[in-house]
Amino acid sequence: MTEQPNHLAPPDQLVATAIQATGLDDFGADTWQEGLDRLVADLDEHGRLHELGVAIVEGEIVDYLSNRLGIIEWRKTHPAVAEGRIDRPLVIVGQPRTGTTILYDLLALDPAHRAPLAWEVDRPLPPPRTETLVAMKYLSRFLSSESRSPTTDSARPYDGAVSMMRPPSSGKVRSVSRSGGISSGLGF
Length: 188
Fold this sequence. Notes:
This protein has eight helices and no strands. With about 190 residues, the chain is an all-alpha fold. It has two domains: about 10-80, no CATH class; about 90-185, no CATH class. α1 (about 10-20) crosses α3 (about 50-75).
């Protein structure tokens, strides 16, 4: 007996869901549309997703589309953002399992640099304020020190840095983060 494949909602339905969720409808230039169409078609053809997988993927796609809508709106209402300068950005590129994440974590420890925290990448709006980031950094260090054991500290001395990448708890629960773990909305 062959299991019937589960199918994702069509791209236009995912777009409509993002529009309904945000109340926004300007996606900016349509350079994203072909990528969305190809992603959904490929997942439908090759993904062999079960019912939960379909729900998770659809939720993630709607989140990405909602983020795009929010960023376009933010840029329209805050045009000064485009005038900001980023001098000599550091870009880390590498194959999986080659140390790119730990390099990122180590560079993020340097107070001369500003690296986006994991929750900022998933939820870029509203952008954090400097005073919020400073408070979160200290709070995250405190919370991570409460949950670590001496064994963990000696085995993974960079855990304190990694914990700073945890999102603020918003009380909002999402299903799964991009990394495939439990949602950032759960506050861990």
